[in-house]
Please model this.
Amino acid sequence: ADILVIHGPNLNMLGVREPGIYGSKTLDDINSELTHKATSTGLTLDTFQSNTEGELVTRVQQAFQESVKYIIINPAAYTHTSVAIRDALLSVQIPFIEVHLSNVHQREAFRHHSYFSDKAQAVICGLGADGYHYALDAATKKISQAK
Ligand code: DQA
Model:
């Protein structure tokens, strides 16, 4: 696919999980909106969710084989812990946009540091599920400019 959207742990619980923080949409809702939007602009988009760090690393590595042009990633709790996923993104050298539903900077101090933000092309946080759409718009623009 042209664009790969990766969701980290517990994001499969969206809609059920702390809706006051994360919103009422399910992950399926978000993924199907993004897929439709990409298709309407002539791009292909894949989505992937895992609760396991190693599976997320492996999926990033696969993106290299698939010649994915852009990654949109919400590493969820791994944002604050994972050198391994960071290293995977650096190893494939695919540009990525980091998305968080909540404004992590308004929350606990342990959410203020990200292992991804200094390497991300952009970081979007605090805009709920809309953040993924803004990221997709940006990726779409970058891909069309590169053509
Ligand atoms: C999150 C923020 C993280 O701190 C948290 O662990 C998540 C979701 C967000 O989208 O707001 O699981 O990435």
